Each structure stands twice: as structure tokens, then as C-alpha cells.
Amino acid sequence: MQCLLVMPWGAAIQPGRKGVPAMIQLLKRLFSVGGGNNNSKKPVSLEALLSTSGRLKAAELQAFARSAGFGKFYATVTCPVLVGSSIRSGSLTPRGEAAMAKQPRKKTHLFRADQVAELVEGASLESSIFPVLHGAGTTNGDPTRFTIGRGLGNDIVMNDQAISEAHASISVLRGSYSIRDLNSTNGTKLNGAAIMQGSKPLKDGDAVTLGRYNFTFYTPQGLYSFLRQGK
Fold first, then answer.
1. What distance in Å separates the CA atoms of residue 33 and residue 43, rounded to the nearest whole number?
2. Which of 1, 3, 54, 133 lies 20 to 30 Å from 173, alpha-carbon distance?
3. Predicted confidence (pLDDT) per residue in 50-71, tens digit
4. What is the three-state SS of 2-57?
């Protein structure tokens, strides 16, 4: 006995020796193996790209930028970032485990660029990507201002003794960006020039130096281009 398959729109397929393969192909196009439409991938969220330390996962972020168009990328990554580029040679004063143990996190140690030595901690900051976002433990109540420092109350926490408790801040207002030094011990530089007072405007590709760490500032557009280039 033959059966008649009636499709939802009223068309009918009568399975015969030739009709069965065509029917199977049609069903495969209409339904996924588990049922339902499985053509669209689960959207990527910014939370999924963040590590527990609050940095963006570089490999996952680059893979996302290479697979997505800019519109999809910008819908996910809407904030500017600081991308670590290099670590300046220098040392902390005083150095040594004994000196560090006396005040392990309360004092910012002077950074002197004329002496070559390794920092006690913080080398992992190199090539990190810090999103300019309000952190979970932030004590900053200004929605347009993002603080950077060693203290846990900052929006961007850089766990290093050459970074001051409150080191610098970045302001984002109506698509414009600026940076200010917060009277830090080791200073903040923009494109090699020390920021002495007031705010300085930031733009795509600007070099930002915090203590002994060199970063590049990127807007979402600049970050997308940077990641697509594979640098």
C-alpha cells in the first residue's frame, strides 16, 4: 500500500522508487536533524569574550573579527580598548622580595627607565586587551569616566607595583575620547609626551604609556581593522 505525504502548504509527494530520494532531500532542507531551523549560529556576547581578569580573550576576539562583518562586531564590542604593545626596560625601587613583602600592595614603587631589570610581577600585561568598561567592583560613579589603576575599585585593574592605586582615567563622551593622569607616581604619556595636567584627546592608534607599559588605544572600528590584519 502506498502512502501520500502532504506538505504544510498543500503539495503532495507520492513516494515511489524515484520519489523517495527527492522527498528526503526536501525534508533535509526543511528541517535540521534535531528539528527546527539550525542555520543561524548562537550570537557572540561581550561577556563570552571576557576572561575572569576582565581582559578580552585575544584569540577568540580575533577569530570573531575575522568571521564577522563590522556591523556584527560593533554590535558586540561597542567600547574602546587598550591593547598592550610592549614593556619598557627598567626597574622598581626598592627592589627585592623583602622590600616588597613589607608593603605588598599599599605602595607604588618608583619606576626608573634608566636601569634594566625585570619587574617582580606584571609581565603578563604585555599584549593584553583591556576593554574600557565599568568593572564589577568599581567605586567610580561617573558613567562617562573610566579609571585605571592598581586598586580593586578601578574600572580597569592593572595588578602591578609600577601602576599607581589610581593611575589614569579615560573619558568617553558623545563619541569623543580623552585621557587624564591622576597624579600617578610613574606618570602617563600620550604618544611619548607626558600628560602633566588636564585631559588630552585620544584617537585611534594613539600610543598610551602607563608606568612602564605601552598600549595602543583603539575605538571599535580601529580594533576591528587591527584584528582583521592579524597583527
1. 21
2. 54
3. 888 788 988 899 999 999 999 9
4. CCCEECCCCCEECCCCCHHHHHHHHHHHHCCCCCCCCCCCCCCCHHHHECCCCCEC
